[in-house]
Amino acid sequence: MNLKSKNIFKMFGPGIIVAATGVGAGDLIAAAVSGAQYGYALLWAAIVGAILKYVLNEGVSRWQLVYGTSLMQAWMEKLNTFFSWYFFVYLIVWSFIVAAALMAACGLSAHAVIPLLTVAQWGVIHSILAAVLVLAGKYHLIEKLMKFFIALMFVITITSAILIKPDILAILRSIFIPTIPPGSLKFILGVIGGVGGSVTLLSYGYWISEKKWQGSSFLTQSRLDLGFAYMLTGFFGLAIMIVAAGTKPDVMQGNMMVLALANKMGEVTGGTGKWIFLIGFWGAVFSSMIGVWHGIPYLFADFVQLKFKRGILGQSQLAQSKYYKYYVIYLALPPIILLFMGKPVWIVILYAVAGAFFMPFLAMTLLYLNNRFRWLKQFKNSFVTNIILALSLLIFAYLMLNELMNYL
């Protein structure tokens, strides 16, 4: 592929979907809490988080482009069957809880802007709208929507950060001269772990298939695509931390922190900043919903067809399968019940415990699969990649143990 003959920026797409999907309510809240607590001191953590997620996602992409199968298929063919079943069970639980959380976040943001309906009603409307867009549209429609949302979020985060008149020299000093204030370790790891999504990293392989990126000749294209995506992801994390540092919201946890942050923006900027920030938050959570509704069903459909041999389809054809469509409906409708009854404790515990293992599991499998010369030949992990993956494994293993300790 001759990159010089094309406008490379017009070809960005799957990475933009990853960026728009990965910047959700949880990521924004983790970044905002850190900014409110420690000012600019932890800005560097958002950059580190974006770099780690880039390396993980590049590993997913490289496996697929060089070896020719999805990472899901690699887990099923090259690892003990326990691992694929573990992921499948986790996927079902993760999908249910994350879908409900996205509905609540979309409902909250829409209600804050247009309080004509309740949070739950707005959440249901967003869920159904996202499902219709995914089921009725094609990949290219989703890509165009995500480019719109990324542009919206970029303009709004830049505007929000400028409105609070930040100290530019202090920001640059924090980014390039990292510090670890006393008691900040859990916040640092929370920012690093929260930046850029988790399970949705796996959806990238299916999105590049939709884009017809196949073979090792597309590695450079994919790396540029992901590099641009995680540059944006890191930027959004930085911007939210800067805004939180400049406004010091009264509430320090949960979705209500976002409203507190918006109210403080209004106080600092004279009202305009509040509405700008709320629209940006709505764009972040609704684009996350669209990305999850579109990307996660690929994983379910791929697992079902491979495990049960239900008509093997190419990755770019999975969106036409009935299993893909069933899973879109599963994301869009059943979790609505959690909007009205809350999250049963046993589901929350199962989600937390199973989810704690996922990121270490991903890092560990990329260290194993992508280091085998017989599978990836000259495209196996470099020394630097292995160092970063090992660091990712240590960080996410620590977060896993910390999460498990909460339930022991």
Describe the 3D structure.
This protein is an all-alpha fold and 408 residues long. It has a single domain, classed as Amino acid/polyamine transporter I (Up-down Bundle), CATH 1.20.1740. It is built from 18 helices and no strands. Helix 5 (81-113) runs antiparallel to helix 13 and helix 16 packs antiparallel against helix 18 (383-405). It is globular, with a radius of gyration of 20 Å. The N and C termini lie far apart (53 Å).
Summed up, what is this model?
By secondary structure, the chain is mainly α. It has helices at residues 14-22, 25-38, 43-67, 71-78, 81-113, 119-136, 139-163, 168-176, 185-194, 203-210, 219-247, 256-269, 272-308, 322-332, 336-341, 345-369, 373-376, 383-405. It has one domain (3-405): Up-down Bundle (Amino acid/polyamine transporter I), CATH 1.20.1740.10.
Q: Write out the CATH superfamily name.
A: Amino acid/polyamine transporter I
Unreliable runs = 1-6
- Number of discrete helical segments: 18
Tell me the count of domains.
Answer: 1
CATH fold descriptor? Amino acid/polyamine transporter I
- Shape label: globular
Biggest sheet details:
none
| C-alpha end-to-end distance | 53 Å
Strand content: under 5%
Structural class: mainly alpha
Instruction: Indicate the CATH class.
Output: Mainly Alpha
Mean pLDDT across every amino acid position: 88
Helix share, percent: over 70%
Architecture (CATH level 2) name: Up-down Bundle
Order of helices and strands: HHHHHHHHHHHHHHHHHH
In total, the number of strands is: 0
Radius of gyration of CA atoms, rounded to a whole number = 20 Å
